[in-house]
Write a structure and sequence with these properties.
single chain; about 100 residues; mainly alpha; 2 domains; 6 helices
Length: about 100
Amino acid sequence: MMCTKKGEPTLKPCDKRCIVQAVRLERPKDISKACRLIKLSRSSLRYQSIKNDGYIMERLEELAKQNPVEGFWKCYGRIRNSGTIVNHKNYTGFIKDGIAAAP
């Protein structure tokens, strides 16, 4: 059983999936037991993300190269005006990773 104290970080589902996969290498038939120990539902184990951020990343890199002094909101506005609708929180993650110009 995994106990966490207040303020202590818990594992993300993707990390839990990795742990379950490692357990499955040793004992392939104990999927439900491994999921129960890690506190991960079996449906979450099978979940695969459908993100397609490749276009957004390419567009941000292109805008950053064209206008290196422009900040985040300027790049975000240009992408939104071109017709691509994505939450701005997705774009800030790319900016923090250093893909586009810093604000």
